[in-house]
Amino acid sequence: MECRVCDGINLHVVLDLGHQPWCNNFLTESQVNKEPKYPLRLLYCNDCCTSQLDYTVDKEIMFSNHTYLSGITKSLSEHFLVIAKEVDKRFGSEFRAKTILDIGSNDGTQLKHYQDLGWNVLGVESSKKTAEIANKNNILTLNRFFNLDCIKEINLKFSIINAAGVFFHLEELHSVTKAIKFGLEKNGIFVVQFLYMKSIMENNAFDQIYHEHLLYYTLRTIQQLLKRHDLEMFDAYLSSIHGGQMIAFVGHPGERAKTERLAQLEKQEVESKCNDKNSYIEFAKRVDAIKIRDLEFLSNRRAEGKRIYGMGAPVKGNTLLNYFGVGPSTIEYLLEKNELRKGLYSPGMHIPILLETEMGEWPDVFYVLAWNFKSEILKNHQHMIDQGVEFYFPIDPK
Questions:
Q1: Containing H/E element for 334?
Q2: What pTM value is reported for the model?
Q3: pLDDT per 10-residue tile (average), the chain, 398 residues
């Protein structure tokens, strides 16, 4: 294959997680054992250092009817509010008509915060049900995939274009990046949030590798993509959300001075050698060690006669469960808040989903798959901890 960023052909497999289902494909009972599986391999480009998947599940399969809702988690909504307030305070006064376009806008949670601050908002969301939720909540949302054709049909320039957790999903990567360039006002800003590969490796968060995430950026690699399409990053900082997500600010070249904190982050990347192939090889060794450790933990707890539930049913959790081969004989249920997953089964391992409102007797152990919301989970379930319920985190970010 060709590199998704630079078109090079000198790529090397650095982590193989086997054949897995599309891990957001929660199943009805009749669909169990009828799901396709695809290779899940992480490749490293020896030319531009970008890590990426070598297999693409069609975007129409993954994103036309997905069940993820960003408004479910309080801490994520609070994070979006912080971003909106920061952008409004730093840049809002520069624009006569404060307009924002959100790519992959989901249920409109991010845009709602901007709307409350006086911005004119527009979302583009590929999932029909999710777009309907946003529109019902008075967040104007187009139900379609965003690309160059889409922005030309919209035919507007925006003060801010936002991409929160979507820019590394893109099958049409270059068309979307061209569309961002096309849709920005002269002094407009592209606010992009992306899983940061340096943090993924430091946290051993291999479960964030799944078919929806086609690319795994560092500052070095994403800037090569932006430069290719005549865009320039001028600022960035690392947020703790999702175990380490980069928040970056991008504009047309020469419009804004680059910040010192961006320079410091770039320096830290060089010092950490996170863009070197050997760092990926060592990361893969640590992943194998985690698998051995956690299978032993789960086996011991079951041998002790303890009941184990999964806390949360995030997509990344299904990567972990499928790679470990952990199913309902070990974990009885995955406990969820999301009503769209009521009565469904997890992809691959087919663990039944139980809504929090349906839970009766507590388990002895929660195997916490939604580890990126550790603080919120521990706070919300302190009463269980006080009664002796064990909360185990397979990934514990630094």
A1: strand 334-336
A2: 0.91
A3: 96 97 91 92 98 91 68 81 96 96 94 97 93 95 96 98 91 96 98 95 95 96 98 95 87 98 98 98 97 98 98 93 97 92 94 93 96 90 96 88
> What does the alpha-carbon distance between residue 103 and residue 146 come to, in Å, rounded to a whole number?
7
The pLDDT tens digits of the residues spanning 116-144 come to 999 999 999 998 999 999 999 999 999 99
Side chain identity, residue 198: K
- Token couple for 348: 């691959």
- Contact between 259 and 235 under an 8 Å Cβ cutoff? The reply is yes
Residues 6+ apart with CB under 8 A from 136: none
Residue 264 in tokens: 């410091």
Q: How many residues does the chain have?
A: 398
Dihedral angle computed from the Cα positions of residues 126, 132, 136 and 142, in that order, rounded to the nearest 10 degrees:
40
Q: CA-CA distance, 10 to 7, in Å (whole number)?
A: 9
Contact 150, 183 (CB under 8 A): no
Which domains are seen in the chain, by residue range?
70-277 (3.40.50.150), 298-392 (3.40.50.720)
CA–CA gap between residue 216 and residue 53 (Å, rounded):
9
